[in-house]
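Good day; I would like, with your permission, to put a structural problem before you. What I wish to show you is a protein chain and, alongside it, a tokenised description of its three-dimensional fold. Here, with my thanks, is the record as I have it:
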Amino acid sequence: MNIALLRQRIKPWILPIAMVAGMLFHDFMGQIEFIAPYLIFIMLFITFCRVKPHEFRITALSWSLLSVQIIGALALYFIIAPMSVDVAQGTFICVFCPTATAAPVITGMLGGSVPRLATFSIISNIAVALLAPVIFTLMGSDAGIPFSDALLTISAKVMPLIILPLVLALCLLKISPKVHRAVAEKQAVSFYIWAVSLFIVVGRAVSFIMDEPSEAIPKMIILAIFSGIVCCAQFWIGRKIGRRCGDKIAGAQGLGQKNTVLAIWMALTYLHPVSSVAPAAYVAWQNTINSAQLYFKMRRENSGK
């Protein structure tokens, strides 16, 4: 068996392995969790280099997926908040969170349109960068911090993390097209960076969960269940929208595959920490779905040979 074939067979299992490793070594995450935002930055930069300006076309697919992402997230929050604000925040972040930086990679592996998905990834991330500071500030309005101060603080941390990689990618295209092309051709790297990021943030979330009192367990179970429901719903809705717009794979991955690394980080930083259980559980849900999709696609291809 050659190395390329071995890597192809192992790839569907890398993300589950990263999650399990994060759970096992959660005690060490406090020493390395500071690098998570830098890994998110690098993943976004590599993804944004994938889309050239002439490929950046906002289509009906983009608008439809974005509407579900923003309006759907807010609707779920307001529906659930009267029962539990923590559960509402966790469910909200699972829908509001932008498309995963590795989604174009998975989309390509499944046979979908990479440029189309990468375009939506940019739109999805920009929308979160612009709206997150306001929404997070309003959700934490009872923290005793003036609205303007909280808004500026969150904006200063969230917006550069998401917007700056896009600016750098565009600048690199102008300054050195060859280097830009070389980065764009290394999309697989973002997949492995994503695995390292998952290892860190899952470990961090597990550490938090382990420190929670036993009476918080029912709420965490509810968060995990709600996370699974919205995960399956988003893959299903995205697939329906994508089929109507000509690319069911890009639609499903664009809406269902979330940047859970960013989601967990935002939940731990700006929302009630227990809400991070939802995106942490979403990691398992979405990667179970993606691993299954990759497995069945690979089996179909092998059976056709």
